[in-house]
Design goal:
Blueprint: E1 3-7, H1 12-23, E2 27-32, E3 57-61, H2 67-77, E4 81-84, H3 91-96, H4 98-119, E5 124-130, H5 152-171, E6 174-180, E7 183-184, H6 193-205, E8 212-214, E9 220-221, E10 224-225, H7 226-236, E11 244-247, E12 253-254, H8 255-265, E13 274-276, H9 294-300, H10 308-322
Parallel strand pairs: 1-2, 1-4, 2-3, 4-5, 5-6, 6-11, 7-10, 8-13
Antiparallel strand pairs: 9-12
Helix pairs in contact: 1-7, 2-4, 4-5, 6-8, 6-10, 8-10
């Protein structure tokens, strides 16, 4: 039975990845931060009593700022695979907290790599890189495109990216960078623009909100469905040799288009409810991100199936139901792909 460690297991990607690995027979160890309140909502349906000798998901308190604790974790668990998803991952927040972002998002990856090297476990590691590293590089962006980070978050991710490559080449670690373009789901954090939109539409329809304030409506992103992307993470660590790959849909849509799709799904005119607020603008904006995922398809056979329109409807159905409103259900009908049979709920 293979064993994996997931940092950031309580996040969107971590929760979906935990589901996938459990469905494949793994024992999953997750790293979570100690807090006075629980932040495990996304994995509550996976919880198993730690007193159960057959439990296959185990949570450990820890922090990416604590290198000694990370090293001890590797000595204790001795995993076959590590998926490093933990980070300060909000781009706009990184401008307000650049030092913290650099410490956790950048140096956190180095602490993890050092823990693997020092413990001598010999496991494989996946590093969650980001399309934000490309900044305003010409689109479409692939493995050969130049990096031009335009935020503290992107710069920290780029530092982690190069350290993964250095540890791979210098110490022989099986270390991979998955350069993921934007991927969303009903489990996306509520401050990220896509989820902020779908929650607001539901709240407006329920009469609990009047206005949705957003930043740059013209920013264009390559948006996919998160459960499909965690499959790509797993596939990378099943290959004979480590590599770095780009994952995306090959399509780009603006924030305005996302707004139009979400409001249109419930027959509301978005122009009556949306206002722009400068506080949500970034000091340095990234106008366009568009993936060229052809190498991931060639090497892994990975190809997304959920379209942009499907994605918006999946998220809208979930947030309408959470608001106690009837959902059209068109998003649910999109989730019939046999590849996602492991998905326990949207």
């Amino acid at each position: 039975m293979p064993t994996a460690i997931i940092t950031g297991i309580t996040g969107q990607d971590g929760s979906y990845l935990a589901e996938l690995l459990l469905a494949k027979g793994y024992t999953v160890h997750g790293l979570i931060r100690r807090a006075s309140t629980f932040h495990t909502e996304r994995i509550e349906h996976l919880y198993q009593d730690p007193h159960d000798p057959l439990a296959r998901i185990v949570l450990h308190y820890g922090d990416l700022s604590d290198s000694s604790q990370l090293t001890n974790l590797f000595y204790e668990v001795r995993p076959d695979e590590v998926y490093h998803l933990g980070a300060q991952s909000h781009v706009r927040v990184s401008f307000d907290m650049p030092d913290y972002t650099g410490d956790i998002t950048g140096l956190g990856a180095v602490r993890l790599l050092e823990a693997i090297r020092k413990s001598g476990v010999g496991c494989r590691i996946y590093q969650a890189s980001s399309s934000e590293m490309y900044g305003d590089a010409p689109a479409p962006q692939n493995e050969q495109s130049r990096f031009q980070p335009r935020s503290p978050y992107a710069a920290a991710k780029l530092y982690a990216y190069w350290m993964v490559r250095n540890y791979r080449e210098g110490y022989g670690l099986f270390a991979c960078n998955g350069i993921m373009f934007n991927h969303e789901s009903p489990r996306r954090g509520e401050t990220f623009v896509t989820r902020k939109i779908t929650r607001a539409v539901s709240a407006i329809l329920a009469g609990r909100q009047k206005t949705l304030f957003l930043g740059n409506l013209e920013a264009r992103r390559d948006w996919g469905f998160a459960p499909e992307y965690v499959e790509g993470m797993w596939l990378m660590l099943q290959q004979e040799a480590p590599c770095d790959l780009v994952f995306g849909t090959g399509e780009t849509h603006s924030v305005r288009e996302f707004v139009e799709e979400a409001f249109g799904y419930v027959n509301l005119d978005w122009r009556e409810y949306v206002a722009e607020d400068p506080r949500y603008l970034r000091p340095t904006e990234v106008p366009l991100l568009l993936a060229d995922p052809s190498e991931a398809k060639r090497r892994l056979g990975w190809e997304p199936g959920i379209t942009f329109r499907d994605l918006v409807r999946i998220m809208m159905d979930a947030d309408l139901e959470a608001a106690g409103l009837p959902a059209p259900g068109e998003g649910k009908r999109c989730l019939t792909d046999g590849r996602l049979a492991w998905l326990r709920k949207p």
